[in-house]
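Hi V.,

Quick status before I head out on leave. The structure for the redesign project is tokenized and pasted below; the design run finished overnight.
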């Protein structure tokens, strides 16, 4: 039997799957392989805990749900980007992620790098879009906070320490 927390987590994951689908269309153009790799990374499961925390935090402050869901989608894109890059041969050189081949194994290393880069860009695109929040000031603040969190004093800095520590 699923408890209340488990149900809320599952519902958030289902919501995020639908939302993320809208940002990662099936593409038949020159970027087809890139979008396939991006979708593979983002849509291959996971608990969506970051999204859950973002949405629940937003609920505490009465942030409209559509705004919170877009921010959560941006966080999921950044999370997937970080996992793609972390799995690369020049980093941790992992072959599996969530029981599936990593992006560089499923596609190739160059496509993995580009998919990760594109997901990072997509996160900032989502945050800067007026649909995320009507206030340009709020959107700029979201972009700045994410940039700080994932930059050299945040996630990328932590990855650097991981590489050189050992």
């Amino acid at each position: 039997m699923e408890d209340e927390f488990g149900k809320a987590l599952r519902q958030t994951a289902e919501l995020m799957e639908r939302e993320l689908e809208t940002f990662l269309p099936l593409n038949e153009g020159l970027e087809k392989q890139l979008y396939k790799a991006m979708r593979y990374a983002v849509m291959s499961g996971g608990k969506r805990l970051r999204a859950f925390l973002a949405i629940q935090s937003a609920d505490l402050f009465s942030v409209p749900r559509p705004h919170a869901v877009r921010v959560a989608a941006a966080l999921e894109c950044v999370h997937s980007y970080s996992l793609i890059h972390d799995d690369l041969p020049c980093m941790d050189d992992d072959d599996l992620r969530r029981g599936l081949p990593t992006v560089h194994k499923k596609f190739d290393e160059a496509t993995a790098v580009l998919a990760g880069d594109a997901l990072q860009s997509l996160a900032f695109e989502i945050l800067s879009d007026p649909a995320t929040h009507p206030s340009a000031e709020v959107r700029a603040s979201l972009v700045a906070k994410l940039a700080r969190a994932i930059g050299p004093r945040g996630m990328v800095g932590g990855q650097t320490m991981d590489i050189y520590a050992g």
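Above is the designed sequence. The chain is about 70% helix and 0% strand.

G. will cover questions while I'm gone.

Best,
W.
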